[in-house]
Design brief:
The complex is a heterodimer of chains A (about 120) and B (about 260). In chain A, about 40% of the residues lie in helices and about 30% in strands. With about 120 residues, chain A is of the alpha/beta class. Classes of the chains: A alpha/beta (about 120), B alpha+beta (about 260).
Chain lengths: ~120, ~260
C-alpha cells in the first residue's frame, strides 16, 4: 500500500501516512466539496494497515474545523480503530490543539466519548 | 380426544399389530398400511412445524439485529448533529471576533475608521429622511507628540486609553465613540442638536483636564481640543467632517483645551 501525502488546500487538511512508522497524520480544516474523495484513501490505508500489520498504529491529529460530513468520516475512522482495538490491535489517537482555542479540546472530547483505546487530547502552545 | 387417550390408542394399535394371533388377517394388513401412512404424515407435520419455528426464530433474530443497527445509527447521527452544532457555534464566535477586529481599534477598543464611516453613512441617510440632524465632534490630544517624545510611546498609549475611557463614560448607548487615527478621536451624536452636544463635550473636556496620569514621579495633566458641527441637510458626511476639523483647528489656534463649534 502506498503512503499518502496529500497537501492541504483551503478546504481540506494535509494528510500524511507512514506505513513504516505506523502513523497517520492530519492537520488543518476540513470542509471538502466531496468528503468521500478525501477520506476514502485514508480509510483504505487504515483498513489495509490494520489487516496486514501487527505493529502499533497512531493517528496524529491537528484538526481545527470539520464540517458535518467530515465529522461522520472521522467517527467512522474511530469506529474502525475501536474494532481493531477490541480485537487486540494497539491503536492510539493523539489530538493536538492550540491552547488558545479550548473549544477544539471540547470537540475532541466529544469524539473520544465512545472510544476505549488511548485517545489523548494535548494542548500545544 | 385428549393426548393421553391418543397415546393409549397408539399403544393398543401397536400391540394389536404385533400380536401373532392376528397375522394374515385381512384387517391386520389394512390396519398395518393405514398405520404406516399415519406415521409418515405425522413425521411430515412435525418437520413442517420445526421448519416454521426455525424461520420464526430467524426472523425474530433478524429484527433484533436490525433494530440494534438502527439504534446504533441513530446514536451516531445524534452525536454528529451535536458535534456539528458545536463547530457552528465555534465558527460564529470566530466570525464575531473577526468582525470586531475589523471594525474596532485594537488599542482603545473604540470604533475604527471603517465602522465610523459605516455609521456616518447610516446617520446621514437617517438625518436626510427624518430631518433630525446629528452632531459630529472631533477631538485631538493637546501636545500629544511632546508627551510621546518625552515619555515614550507607552505613556502615549496610556493617554489615548484614558481619553477613550473618558469618552465612553460620557455618552449615551447609541452615540458612537471612535478613533479617527493617531491622537484624533471622533464622536457621533445621532438625533442631537449642537447645544446639547456642546454640554456633553464640555463635561468630557473637564473630565480629561481633571485626570492625572502618574508617570514615575510626575503627574501628567492632559487636555483635549474639540471641534464640532451639526450635519446640514443635503451635504455629504465628508463636508460635515471637514467642518468639524476646521472647528478643531480653531480650538487649537485659540489656546487649546477648549470646544469650538462651526
Amino acid at each position: 500500500m502506498d503512503d499518502l501525502n496529500i497537501p492541504a488546500s483551503v478546504s481540506t487538511p494535509a494528510i500524511q501516512s507512514n506505513w513504516q512508522a505506523g502513523t497517520l497524520a492530519m492537520q488543518g480544516d476540513s470542509y471538502p466539496e466531496n468528503s468521500y474523495e478525501l477520506f476514502s484513501p485514508v480509510f483504505e490505508w487504515l483498513q489495509a494497515f490494520l489487516a496486514q500489520e501487527s505493529k502499533p498504529l497512531s493517528m496524529e491529529l491537528q484538526l481545527v474545523y470539520l464540517n458535518t460530513s467530515s465529522i461522520k468520516f472521522m467517527m467512522d475512522i474511530f469506529d474502525l480503530l475501536e474494532d481493531a482495538h477490541r480485537k487486540g490491535a494497539s491503536v492510539a489517537v493523539n489530538w493536538r490543539y492550540d491552547r488558545q482555542n479550548e473549544r477544539i479540546a471540547e470537540l475532541a472530547e466529544e469524539f473520544k466519548e465512545d472510544c476505549t483505546f488511548p485517545f489523548n487530547i494535548i494542548a500545544k502552545n | 380426544m385428549k393426548l393421553d387417550d391418543h397415546l393409549e390408542l397408539e399403544k393398543r394399535i401397536e400391540l394389536l399389530l404385533a400380536d401373532p394371533a392376528y397375522q394374515g388377517h385381512p384387517l391386520h394388513e389394512a390396519l398395518s398400511e393405514i398405520w404406516e401412512l399415519f406415521r409418515a404424515k405425522l413425521a411430515r407435520v412435525e418437520r413442517i412445524t420445526k421448519l416454521s419455528d426455525a424461520y420464526q426464530l430467524m426472523a425474530q433474530k433478524g429484527t433484533v439485529s436490525m433494530s440494534e443497527r438502527f439504534e446504533k445509527e441513530i446514536r451516531q447521527l445524534e452525536r454528529i448533529v451535536r458535534i456539528s452544532d458545536r463547530y457552528q457555534e465555534m465558527m460564529q464566535e470566530i466570525n464575531a471576533a473577526l468582525v470586531k477586529a475589523a471594525t474596532h481599534d485594537p488599542l482603545t477598543g473604540l470604533a475604527n475608521r471603517t465602522l465610523i464611516i459605516k455609521r456616518l453613512v447610516q446617520e446621514t441617510s437617517r438625518a436626510s429622511r427624518s430631518g433630525h440632524p446629528f452632531v459630529l465632534a472631533m477631538l485631538d490630544v493637546d501636545y500629544f507628540k511632546q508627551f510621546n517624545d518625552r515619555h515614550g510611546h507607552e505613556v502615549g498609549d496610556r493617554i489615548l486609553l484614558s481619553i477613550a475611557q473618558a469618552m465612553r463614560s460620557s455618552v449615551r448607548e447609541y452615540d458612537l465613540c471612535g478613533r479617527w487615527g493617531g491622537d484624533e478621536f471622533l464622536m457621533l451624536f445621532p438625533e442631537t442638536r449642537l447645544p446639547e452636544a456642546n454640554s456633553v463635550m464640555e463635561r468630557l473636556r473637564h473630565k480629561v483636564q481633571d485626570m492625572e496620569l502618574i508617570v514615575g514621579s510626575d503627574a501628567l495633566s492632559i487636555s483635549v481640543s474639540i471641534g464640532m458641527t451639526e450635519y446640514l441637510p443635503e451635504e455629504s458626511f465628508s463636508d460635515t467632517i471637514n467642518r468639524a476639523d476646521l472647528a478643531l483647528l480653531e480650538a487649537k489656534r485659540n489656546g487649546r483645551n477648549c470646544c469650538f463649534s462651526a
